[in-house]
Design brief:
The structure holds 2 protein chains of 2 kinds.
Chain A (H helix, E strand, L loop, with lengths): L35 E6 L1 E2 L10 E2 L1 H10 L4 E5 L6 H14 L4 E3 L1 E2 L9 H10 L6 E3 L5 H10 L3 E3 L7 H7 L5 E3 L10 H13 L3 E4 L6 H11 L4 E2 L9 H9 L5 H16 L8
Parallel strand pairs in A: 1-4, 4-5, 6-7, 7-8, 8-9, 9-10, 10-11
Antiparallel strand pairs in A: 2-3
Chain B lengths: L1 H5 L4 E6 L1 E4 L7 E4 L1 H10 L4 E5 L7 H13 L4 E3 L1 E3 L8 H11 L5 E3 L5 H10 L3 E3 L9 H11 L5 E3 L10 H13 L3 E4 L7 H9 L5 E2 L9 H10 L4 H16 L3
Parallel strand pairs in B: 1-4, 4-5, 6-7, 7-8, 8-9, 9-10, 10-11
Antiparallel strand pairs in B: 2-3
The chains are: A alpha/beta, B alpha/beta.
Amino acid sequence: MKTDWAYSRRSFLGVAGAAAVGIASPASPTSKVPVIDCHTHAGTAGRLMDPWTTIADPGEILRRNKEARIDQACIFPISHDNFEEANQEIARIVKRYPCRFIGFAKHDPVAEKGRIRSMLLRECRQLGLRGLKLHVTPTPEVLDTVAELGIPILWHPGRVALFAPVAEAYPTIDLILAHLGSDLSSDWREHMAGIEMARRYPNVYLDTGGTVLTRYLEQAAQELGPGKIIYGSDEPEVDCRLEIFKVRMLGLPAEQEASILGGNMQRLLSKYNGNAA
Amino acid sequence: MKRETRQPLVVDALAFAGAGRTWASPEREVDYNVDLLLERGAAAGIDRHCVMPPRNDTYAEANRAVARLCEKHAGKLIGFAAHSPQREAGQLRQALVDELKGMGLKAVRSDGHPTRELMDAAQEFRIPVVYYPGPARWQQLGRYYHMLATAYPAVNLIIPHLGQYASLSWPAHIEAIDLAKRYRNVYLDLSGIGSFKYAELAAADLPAEKLLFGTGAPELDPRVGKEALRLLKLAPEAYAKVAGGNILRLLGGR
């Protein structure tokens, strides 16, 4: 589906012109590290039952990103019946705003069984996508392909405990636990489990997006240090301006804050070794 | 100095004090630190917090604890009682007489669906009722307010969290906005909203008189609630109402 996005690209011409996939210049002149939102949905879907099965308008997201001084956002599809099509839409949006968005694919390892390797290789090598978003537990087919490409997985599991066997079996894959383990802090015990998971496995990181109970974000920062925490919002359902405020509210030293807001994600993204076409 | 006196009062319409269990499920034992509330509230530029007890099996001691804190921090805290209309049936009126007149509490939070006994007392004492039906009733928010709002038009009802704590079910926000639009006596508190766009929607759809700034502190960080208020980008007159004018008006009616 073609969508005429409301946002004018002109606003961002100041930073346009970089390669199709790259890290933008920081919006803040004093910051050396770009601010990257690791968790943003974009595009359209057809079920029209919830906001996340209808539309996530990149124009609105860009407006809020600009206000929050976010340089780039990792974008991936909303809930969709055909992720191959949805990932193509993501690639088109990234092509339109190459300095502002980094495209991630989204797949269902069960429903798309047997086809994922070829789709993901194509999506990374030909369409320029640089990560994978999952809700369903990844299968060896998915994980072997991800390891080959050197891309991170942002995974929102049904339960945090599902991370353990994957993190252990694939120590070279960077796994980002969405929502610090509990979307909208619906179960604080999952935040605790998420912090433990990140403490236990060197390759597990925590995405900050949609953490309502910010005490667990504070706890994660205190106990794990900034290297294990990655800023994300879950735009457009969760407002990036408030989510980034929660990180800035931690009052960390500038270098540590910069790691959370972009440095860590930048490092994970730099591991891509799948070669672009 | 002149400029400071023109700043609208910022009054947090929903905060907690004392010991008990979280109102949100899954429950957690809590003993809320009033110093942290006041410290973070002050950092956020909040002048006063309306505080109520966390969830308890019985509320007599919890309400007394709130009253003591309000006395200790006079000018900073406004106390709300909490009661279970079901577990305390037959005792509510007298309990409220003691708490409102003897201890200076100003409103009541209903732990469970308000009964005629509670609503009659609220009407008699002209206090607002804070009532949140809870997560098991997400899909039927309207059912829990239509009768209350129509049977007791003189009682002001405050729906916390814009109808849905943490935005766990977005349609409840829409329903809450519609309730506030329909009933003169229904007001929405803006604390603990996960999906801020619904607060923006409420601000666009409703007159400023219907919205109350709230934080859910110290369970939630009051600085986040205050930042959300700022992001609503209200015109000065509307800001003054939402930030504190509305809740003070509702409390001043008694």
